[in-house]
């Protein structure tokens, strides 16, 4: 069974985008996963295909309408569809590698790309949308975030990565950032490859990599070790 992604968007032409290239693109062609980009405006009731309206209570911007989105979601995810329904949103729960692995182990996902000021809360509740954030910053819409999420998921699908071990030794897989990497030439601008990595002693190499991963994590992401993140220095 392949992983089936249905993306609800005002800009279906943004898909597959980068997902049509490299590993994800080859997997898409091979049928390892499928992608359906659905135009939300197709479910609007008026001749102008209106999908948004002014916010209740006043304020700047526009809000995506619950009635239009509900029709789009029901089309993409009819009764019996067990795929999770995700809403890409800066106020969502941060996406983690653990959640990515859960999604990759499932049958797919229905992904709603928010736009404007946001989405009517009633459709979030009525359709059980899981709000997901890819970081503490604001994008012009949910489409780039959906591409990021799908890229993270697709690369974990069986057979997509040539070397499965690669995915097990990356940042966040074991609670640490990834260790530094080196390759030929053995010396670059006076900087040699660390001696331990060319020693042939696999036990020492593993110990060095783990120590370097812990060091990097402590310096850059102490929160992963239970510490307090340090503010960025400007």
Automatic annotation (TrEMBL):
<dbReference type="InterPro" id="IPR002649">
    <property type="entry name" value="tRNA_m1G_MeTrfase_TrmD"/>
</dbReference>
<keyword id="KW-0949">S-adenosyl-L-methionine</keyword>
<dbReference type="InterPro" id="IPR023148">
    <property type="entry name" value="tRNA_m1G_MeTrfase_C_sf"/>
</dbReference>
<dbReference type="InterPro" id="IPR029026">
    <property type="entry name" value="tRNA_m1G_MTases_N"/>
</dbReference>
<comment type="similarity">
    <text>Belongs to the RNA methyltransferase TrmD family.</text>
</comment>
<protein>
    <recommendedName>
        <fullName>tRNA (guanine-N(1)-)-methyltransferase</fullName>
        <ecNumber>2.1.1.228</ecNumber>
    </recommendedName>
</protein>
<keyword id="KW-0819">tRNA processing</keyword>
<feature type="binding site">
    <location>
        <position position="114"/>
    </location>
    <ligand>
        <name>S-adenosyl-L-methionine</name>
    </ligand>
</feature>
<dbReference type="GO" id="GO:0052906">
    <property type="term" value="F:tRNA (guanine(37)-N1)-methyltransferase activity"/>
</dbReference>
<dbReference type="InterPro" id="IPR016009">
    <property type="entry name" value="tRNA_MeTrfase_TRMD/TRM10"/>
</dbReference>
<comment type="subunit">
    <text>Homodimer.</text>
</comment>
<dbReference type="Pfam" id="PF01746">
    <property type="entry name" value="tRNA_m1G_MT"/>
</dbReference>
<keyword id="KW-0808">Transferase</keyword>
<feature type="binding site">
    <location>
        <begin position="134"/>
        <end position="139"/>
    </location>
    <ligand>
        <name>S-adenosyl-L-methionine</name>
    </ligand>
</feature>
<keyword id="KW-0489">Methyltransferase</keyword>
<dbReference type="InterPro" id="IPR029028">
    <property type="entry name" value="Alpha/beta_knot_MTases"/>
</dbReference>
<dbReference type="GO" id="GO:0032259">
    <property type="term" value="P:methylation"/>
</dbReference>
<feature type="domain" description="tRNA methyltransferase TRMD/TRM10-type">
    <location>
        <begin position="6"/>
        <end position="225"/>
    </location>
</feature>
<keyword id="KW-0963">Cytoplasm</keyword>
<comment type="function">
    <text>Specifically methylates guanosine-37 in various tRNAs.</text>
</comment>
């Amino acid at each position: 069974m392949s992983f089936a992604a249905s993306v609800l968007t005002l800009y279906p032409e943004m898909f597959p985008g980068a997902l049509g290239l490299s590993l994800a693109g080859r997997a898409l062609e091979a049928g390892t996963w499928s992608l359906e980009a659905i135009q939300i405006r197709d479910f609007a009731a008026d001749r102008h295909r209106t999908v948004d309206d002014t916010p209740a209570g006043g304020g700047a911007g526009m809000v995506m309408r619950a009635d239009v989105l509900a029709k789009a979601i029901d089309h993409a995810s009819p009764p019996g569809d067990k795929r999770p329904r995700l809403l890409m949103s800066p106020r969502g729960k941060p996406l983690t590698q653990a959640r990515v692995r859960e999604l990759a182990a499932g049958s797919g996902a229905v992904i709603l790309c928010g736009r404007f000021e946001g989405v009517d809360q009633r459709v979030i509740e009525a359709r059980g949308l899981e709000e997901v954030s890819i970081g503490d910053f604001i994008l012009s819409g949910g489409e780039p975030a959906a591409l990021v999420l799908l890229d993270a998921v697709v690369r974990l699908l069986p057979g997509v990565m040539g070397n499965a071990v690669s995915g097990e030794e990356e940042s966040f897989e074991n609670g640490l950032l990834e260790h530094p990497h080196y390759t030929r030439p053995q010396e670059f601008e006076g900087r040699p490859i660390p001696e331990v990595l060319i020693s042939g002693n696999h036990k020492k190499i593993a110990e060095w990599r783990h120590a370097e991963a812990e060091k990097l994590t402590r310096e850059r992401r102490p929160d992963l070790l239970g510490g307090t993140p340090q503010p960025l220095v400007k």
